[in-house]
Amino acid sequence: MRIWQLPKRLRRLGHISYNRLFSLAIAAGAIPSHQDYTRYVIVGQSRCGSNFLRGLLNSHPGIIAYGELFRRYGELNWGLPQYPATRRQLALIRRDPVAFLEQEVFQRYPRHIRAVGFKLFYYHAANPEWQSVWRYLQERRDIRVIHLRRRNMLQTLVSRRIANLTQQWSLGNPHGRPLEAGPIRLDYNDCLRRFNINQRWERETAERFRNRPMIEIVYEDLARNYQGTLQHLQRFLGVEENSVTPQTRKQMRKPLAEQIANYAELKARFHGTPWAAFFDE
Question: What does pTM read for this prediction?
Answer without folding.
Answer: 0.87
